[in-house]
Amino acid sequence: MPKWHWPIDPDKVPRIVVEPPGPKALEVVRRDEELIMQSFARWYPLVIARGYGPVVEDVDGNLYIDYNAGIAVTNVGHAHPKVVEAIKRQAELFLHYSLTDFYYEVAVKLAEKLVSIAPISGGKKVFFTNSGTESIEGVLKIARGHFKGQRPYVIAFLGAFHGRTYGSMSVTASKPVHRRHFSPLVPNVIHAPYPHPVHCPFKASTPEECGEYALAFIEDWILKRLVDPSEVSLVLIEPIQGEGGYVVPSKSFIQGLRKLTQEHGMLFAVDEVQSGFGRTGRWFAVEHFGVEPDLIATAKAIAAGLPLGAIIGKAEVMSLPRGAHANTFGGNPVAAAAALASMEVIEEEGLLRHAEMLGEELKKVFAEEVGDRHHVRGLGLMIGVELLDERKKPAKYLDEVLLKAFKRGVAVIGAGLSTIRVAPPLVIPREMALKAASVILEILRGYR
Ligand SMILES: Cc1ncc(COP(=O)(O)O)c(C=O)c1O
User: Fold this and answer.
1) What pLDDT, on a 0 to 100 scale, did the predictor assign at position 77?
2) What is the 340 CA–ligand 1 centroid distance (Å)?
3) Would you say the CB of residue 302 lies under 6 angstroms from ligand 1?
């Protein structure tokens, strides 16, 4: 069970003292808009001053229940004392000494921890990055490099989000705005259909059947008509699509995909940037599907909010030659210390189990009230409530619902076209999580 470490009373949250956005928030927004490139898709003007575990306070003194965890980052909550202490301790020792040129132990300790939790058997190795997109870039290079350039193709999935730099943008296919005006992209990426349980691209009657068709599409159309399997180095997939709408595929689809990569000698990489580090009630979401990947791309929650990412892979695959891949800040010592502390918190406070149980309860609460109209899905505390209209098409009022929740002290955002994205810090107490759910459900009652 999570412990409460923060100097506020959890029963007194949410607390709205000034209707948000208040005057101080508006002033920060004004300066932001003047000076910062506005290429972000922001949801509402929440201006953070401070965080307390699963609670955030804005600059006007309002307290919100945090259903976002930043953006699926602060899995152990904001300002967890153990993480703060680890950061302070490391900061007093040294802040930087490039790991790709020299050595330090805290990075080795973190690599030891990561290989111990990664669901890959046999020898494993790690490469540290600074972000999710950089982890994906690394995975693409590792896969092509592994085959010495002899397998130039990559299979990715429609609906996927992998990042915004050129390689990761090229495998991304969740919203046209991510790619529009930026071509030419990295070539030789093939996008296959992802088996969406509501909007299956095939005429299937169950999610499992949708998965079968999606697999058959890869086997019969892509690999028999478009590209020879011997030219494909990598199949890259999010085990649960994040930005695409918190979409959970069938177990048999992921298992079939893994088998297919093995039959053709392709590498199988999972993007766990959003789903990793306990979010789904396991260290990694792929564990729910009973398959072992060759490569795992991570970032976001790894270091409790500091910028860090890691690629974890089979030792024989993590074999780029000296000089072929490196960076300045990857495995930063302060971020590494925070990551080790954060993983200790997850273990000590039983957060995997908590996420699993609370996630099941929350799904039930949402499904009981709106399951007949909308689609509730997810694993652990990675829950999507896809808002649908009468024809079971994506509803148009997601933004309105999120704005209303914000005004009532629940910070929650969307994913995909119309999905409410429930991703609180794993330290959220049960009562607080249920309170936020009831606020959202009350708002949804206005849209029946
Ligand atoms: C699954 C997934 N992969 C990659 C990324 C990119 O991560 P970053 O924003 O750290 O570059 C994201 C970000 O949302 C993501 O959700």
Assistant:
1) 98
2) 21
3) no
Quote the pLDDT of residue 324.
97
What atom in ligand 1 is closest to the CA of residue 271?
A: 1
Tokens found for residue 165: 């730099």
Residue ending a domain, among 286, 314, 348, is 348
417 within some domain: yes
pLDDT of residue 27: 98
Q: Which domain holds residue 29?
A: 10-76+350-445
On whether residue 120 sits in a domain, the answer given is: yes
Q: Distance from the CA of 154 to the center of ligand 1, in angstroms? A: 18
271 lines ligand 1 (CB under 6 A): yes
**Residue 223 and residue 357 in one domain:** no
**Mean pLDDT, range 257-265, rounded to an integer:** 98
C-alpha distances (whole Å) from 320 to each of 121, 134, 137, 165, 234 are 20, 16, 13, 21, 15
* For the CA of 307, the nearest atom of ligand 1: 10
Mean pLDDT value across the chain: 97
Residue 445 identity: R
What is the rounded distance in angstroms from the CA atom of residue 208 to the CA atom of residue 205? 8
Ligand 1 center–CA 174 separation, angstroms: 12
Q: Residue 444 corresponds to which tokens in the numbers above?
A: 């949804």
CA distance 11 to 8: 9
Asked whether residue 49 falls in the same domain as residue 104, the answer is: no
Cβ burial 69-83 (10 Å sphere, 16+ → b, else e): bbebbbbbbbbbebb
Query: Of 300, 315, 348, which residue sits at a domain end?
Result: 348
Is the minimum distance from the CB of 272 to ligand 1 under 6 angstroms? no
Ligand 1 centre distance from Cα of residue 159 (Å): 13
* Number of Cβ atoms within 10 Å of the Cβ of 22: 18
Same domain, 99 and 246: yes
Digit-coded pLDDT (tens) for 285-295: 999 999 999 99
Q: Are residues 290 and 146 in the same domain?
A: yes
CA of 133 to the centre of ligand 1 (A): 6
Instruction: Kindly state the average pLDDT of the residues 93-110.
Output: 97
Confidence (pLDDT) at 448: 78
Residues 99 and 244 grouped into a single domain: yes
In this structure, the answer to whether residues 54 and 192 fall within a common structural domain is no
Q: Which of 68, 130, 133, 241 to mutate to test the pocket of ligand 1 (most atoms within 8 A of CB)?
A: 133
Q: Judge if the beta carbon of residue 157 lies within 6 A of ligand 1.
A: no
Structurally, the chain folds into a number of domains equal to: 2
Residue pair 281/257 in contact (Cβ under 8 Å)? The answer is: no
263 pLDDT tier (thresholds 50, 70, 90): very high
Does residue 224 sit in the same domain as residue 266?
A: yes
Q: 173-195 pLDDT, tens per residue?
A: 999 999 999 999 999 999 999 99
Quick one: 333 and 396 in the same domain? no
CA 161–ligand 1 middle distance (angstroms): 7
